[in-house]
Amino acid sequence: MKTPENLLYSKSHEWADIDGDTAVIGITDFAQELLGDITFVELPAVGDTVAAGAEMGSIESVKAASELYAPVSGEVIAVNEALEDAPEKVNESAFEDGWLIKVRISGEPKDLLSATEYAELAASEDH
Amino acid sequence: MKTVFAQSVPGRTACLPPMPEERAEAFIPANLLRGKRPALPEMSELDVVRHFSRLSRLNYGVDSNFYPLGSCTMKYNPKFTENVAALPGFANLHPLLPQIKSAGLYTQGALEVMYESERLLCEVTGMHAFTLHPMAGAHGELTGAMLIAAYHKDKGNKKTKVICPDSAHGTNPASAALAGFEVVNIESKDGLIDPAALDAVLDDEVAALMMTCPNTLGLFEKHLPEIVEKLRKVDALLYYDGANLNAIMGKMRVGDVGFDVVHLNLHKTFATPHGGGGPGSGPVGVSERLEPYLPISRVDKLRDGRFFLNYDYPKSIGFMAPFYGNFGVVLKAYAYILRLGGEGLKRVSEYAVLNANYMRKLLEEHMHIPYNRICMHEFVASACDQQAACGVRALDIAKALLDKGYHAPTIYFPLIVKECMMYEPTETESKETMDAFVQDLIEILESAKTDPVALQDAPVTMPVRRLDETKAARSMILIDPA
């Protein structure tokens, strides 16, 4: 299971790549593995605001439909439109090509986990 | 196998039309004649008989073999209920008959069945009143959520939220959302509702908590009395998803425990056939304080003993279904309840629970059972050990069971258990059937160790091989391959 060191993680299995006042958001490799083949991703639109810990969209796989939660608060400045036709990118490349949205962060990100902390959390759930 | 359309041969026919086409054209006004001929297949009677006989052999039903589909309660339905539903006095009634002046005379029997069914369901559940209108379980949930909304609105309560635990049925949050509520999820602890998690989200805006008990793990929610007390404090109502009632009949009456709304699945608990989209029946029972809001019409009894449909309930939420619900299903459930009686229904629950526990014990050495304790009418096992050891997943095991001649159990539900397989033997299965099934299942699990690839290839004996579920979900294009 991959957990890149440079990212921050939420307990609900999203990652955030924070660079100054923007952040790219996706779901973790652990999450995509658990969900199985992703068939559909529903994302907010550019201009929408998302709130840390609140629902920002949903993701469907052959097994289940699940909510997506925003790891940070802010305004959506880009969405990964490639996922509309190729949701499998989330499976193939959860941390890169399978990114979900990019936001301009408002407020200080909090309650996020480091790569080590997240790896521990994932291991404890992987029973 | 060709579709009926692909088998069509121009001019071939199975019946004589009541009149030749030219004659019809002569006396049906031109503006009422269709412009284009209907694209009906043209076949002989023999073609039709063979086609549908072939199809029926491809079908799998509980009449052919074991169907341990957890959460769905695919039990055997005794055939006498079919005989009752086929009685001409019931089967030939037109649903508009009660609306015709003075025709009430011909519907007294049907109305009495509905009236008495409501009373029997009140007796089984301890609720104050019932409506038989909802056509299925989820429709009952929606009716219940609307009753909850009507109650709070009438009292002037500002309520916006409904709490749904993750161990409840998946339709609960959808029903609450459809009725206009915001859904608040709470995580379960040790397979049960966690009172502390409930405290964390409980406030004055909570309209209700929707519970499935026993829950989808087949476990009884043992914090129930504490939960009832917490909800009462904020005038929130307690909703009981009765889809699993077949585990507790005669053991607990939900009305006595303090539930305000309950829906039952007559097509599961009270032995009427279901699957493939119906027909179902999801009656809703309520406590006294919710009775004024029940849907109309309601069957009432006059002093002289006659029954009539009463529409005069000003606080009613209105119509939830055309006519009076799925009358035929209600009729079968009514016959079933009367035939079994109170003692019989209690035994249904005892056998359902005993069978699930028997199968759980047979299997516990061979599959991981995450909440391995005395369960109710179903239990959840996990193929996580098989996946870790030999890459065989719940899906592979389910497909291999098809090759052994069984219907697969429910897989990947509930979501809180990984590689989940949910077994529900139901009370109608014998020890011999369960023994044979578990033996076949163990054989599959053993073969996973030596030849996992064969399992990943299953099924091999079915009319079609392993279907590409991902492709089916990603590119939904329906075509007739012929």
Question: What Rg of chain B do the Cα atoms give?
Answer: 25 Å
Kindly report the greatest chain-chain contact and the residue count on each side: A-B, 13 and 8 residues
Q: What distance lies between the first and last C-alpha atoms of chain A, to the nearest angstrom?
A: 14 Å
Q: What's the CATH H-level superfamily name of chain A?
A: RNA polymerase II/Efflux pump adaptor protein, barrel-sandwich hybrid domain
Describe the SSE topology.
The complex is a heterodimer of chains A (127) and B (482).
Chain A: E1 8-9, E2 14-19, E3 22-27, H1 29-35, E4 38-42, E5 49-50, E6 55-61, E7 65-69, E8 74-79, H2 82-85, H3 89-92, E9 101-105, H4 115-125
Antiparallel strand pairs in A: 1-2, 2-3, 3-9, 4-6, 5-8, 6-7, 8-9
Chain B: H1 21-27, H2 45-58, H3 80-85, H4 88-91, H5 104-125, E1 129-131, H6 137-155, E2 161-165, H7 171-178, E3 182-186, E4 188-189, E5 192-193, H8 195-201, E6 206-212, H9 224-233, E7 237-242, H10 254-257, E8 261-264, H11 266-269, E9 284-286, E10 298-301, E11 307-310, H12 327-363, E12 379-382, H13 384-390, H14 394-403, E13 410-411, E14 420-423, H15 431-450, H16 452-457, H17 469-474
Give an overview in words.
The complex is a heterodimer of chains A (127) and B (482). With 127 residues, chain A is an alpha+beta fold. Chain A is built from 4 helices and 9 strands; from the N terminus they run βββαβββββααβα. Chain A has helices at residues 29-35, 82-85, 89-92, 115-125, and strands spanning 8-9, 14-19, 22-27, 38-42, 49-50, 55-61, 65-69, 74-79, 101-105. Chain A has a 6-stranded antiparallel sheet. A 3-stranded antiparallel sheet of chain A has the order 4-6-7, with no helix packed on it. In chain A, a hairpin with a 2-residue loop joins strand 2 (14-19) and strand 3. The longest helix of chain A is centred in the C-terminal third of the chain and has 11 residues, at 115-125. Chain B folds into 3 domains: 1-59, no CATH class; 82-339, Aspartate Aminotransferase, domain 2 (3-Layer(aba) Sandwich); 348-474, Aspartate Aminotransferase, domain 1 (Alpha-Beta Complex), CATH 3.90.1150. Chain B has helices at 21-27, 45-58, 80-85, 88-91, 104-125, 137-155, 171-178, 195-201, 224-233, 254-257, 266-269, 327-363, 384-390, 394-403, 431-450, 452-457, 469-474, and strands at 129-131, 161-165, 182-186, 188-189, 192-193, 206-212, 237-242, 261-264, 284-286, 298-301, 307-310, 379-382, 410-411, 420-423. The longest helix of chain B has 37 residues, at 327-363. Chains A and B meet through loops of A and helix 17 of B.
